[in-house]
Specification:
By secondary structure, the protein is mainly beta. The protein has 2 domains: 13-111, Chitinase A, domain 3 (Roll); 129-255, Chitinase A, domain 3. The chain contains 5 helices and 13 strands.
Length: 263
């Protein structure tokens, strides 16, 4: 990216570098937003989290609006493929002078946030699974014995591309412990999808999601040996839940995982 230097704005400045031609964006949408960051003093790249990578999953919600209102407003007037240049006086001095950083954002993708289709019966032996008024799954109390083997079945089968080994998946998900029916994680409650590199998640996800189609809702019952481990193995104050787990996962979209740069 080349631009005239130095850049030193006194108020937030946003300029459209490229108009998008894809889907229009609306409040509440989830998007993949790519970012590159440059010094305003000489235009050299700045290393920062998410900079130069495959993009970050962003929800265009009130929280994002409160954090960066000008960027939020600009994105609501954008489409998939739009590229924006953003500079704020809040970054003045970061390069050792009065210049302000230049942030380049690209709307890489608008992410579907809901799953539609005919609902299949919950597999025998699993807890009842329904939906609330927003379409998010609700899991009832477990009944009976925990399945000894991995269960990976469609609740709603979509028609998208199948998940491949090593993919990056963008999902909504709910996780519950079999032992006490405690929900330990829910992207539905957070209001934004999550992104996972399939090679970096538990074996139950890797085995259960490969081959499942995007646009689907899947239930996974994951035995402890394919989850995070037992309480004894994890130890006190572990950040992960112990024991057998149950997940409901909406596979919103999938992406090839970028190769890791060689040093």
């Amino acid at each position: 990216m080349k631009f005239q230097t130095p850049v030193a704005v006194e108020e937030v400045s946003i300029r459209q570098l490229r108009a998008g031609t894809g889907a229009e964006l609306d409040a509440g949408d989830a998007i993949v937003l790519k970012m590159d960051l440059f010094k305003g003093s000489d235009g050299t790249p700045i290393e920062a989290p998410f900079a130069g990578g495959p993009g970050q999953v962003i929800a265009l919600d009130d929280q994002f609006k409160a954090q960066v209102p000008e960027l939020h407003e600009a994105l609501l007037q954008a489409q998939e493929g739009t590229m924006l240049a953003y500079s704020s006086p809040q970054t003045a001095g970061a390069a050792g002078d009065e210049s302000t950083a230049v942030e380049i954002y690209e709307v890489a993708q608008k992410i579907p946030t809901t799953i539609e289709g005919k609902t299949s019966p919950v597999p025998d032996g699993l807890p009842p699974i329904t939906e609330d008024e927003t379409g998010a799954p609700v899991v009832g109390p477990p009944q009976g014995q925990v399945p000894d083997e991995l269960v990976a079945e469609y609740l709603i089968q979509g028609g998208g591309e199948p998940v491949q080994a090593g993919d990056t998946v963008i999902v909504h998900h709910l996780g519950m412990r079999w032992a006490d029916a405690q929900v330990f994680d829910s992207s539905y409650q957070r209001g934004a999808p999550a992104r996972f590199v399939l090679d970096n998640v538990i074996k139950g996800w890797q085995k259960g999601l490969i081959g499942k189609r995007t646009g689907s809702r899947v239930v996974l019952s994951v035995p402890v040996d394919q989850a995070y481990g037992t309480e004894a193995e994890l130890g006190d104050n572990a950040p992960f839940p112990a024991g057998d787990l149950l997940f409901v996962i909406d596979i919103l979209t999938t992406q090839p995982t970028p190769p890791v740069p060689t040093p």
